[in-house]
Amino acid sequence: MAVEDVQQLLDLLELSPEVSELTVQGASGNKITIKRALSIPESVPAIIYSDEDTVEQSEESAEEPETRPLSVNAALVGLFHEANPPIVPGMSIAAGQIVGYIESMRLMNEVVSSVAGTVEAAVTTEGQPVEYGQALFSVIGR
Length: 142
Fold this sequence. Notes:
By secondary structure, the chain is α+β, with helices and mostly antiparallel strands. It has helices spanning 3-15, 51-63; strands at 21-25, 31-35, 68-73, 78-82, 92-93, 98-104, 107-112, 117-122, 129-130, 135-141.
């Protein structure tokens, strides 16, 4: 497909807001798929807080440090293996830190933490099968 053909497809997609994806196959067998990026509609209401809510919220946060329960989840299906040294409850982890490995199709894939905080519990154990999205570690965020 020529660049002009692709540009025509992009223009067609822009003119048709109800169409979110367009796939075209050329005579030579080449296939091109164009997908529209999702956007948040302007009609979604904004959340507005009153001054009273803000005052109550700031008083509560002054009493307790802000902690959020988070988790490090499996990104694929396989067998979980611990990092070296193993991640144990009470240990601090940083975002981007390798916290374990998932063996899938005989390949070791790194499990990288997307959150920072203190490990509250190791939900999985060495050699345990895990599924996509399953919690591996419970973390109290900073």
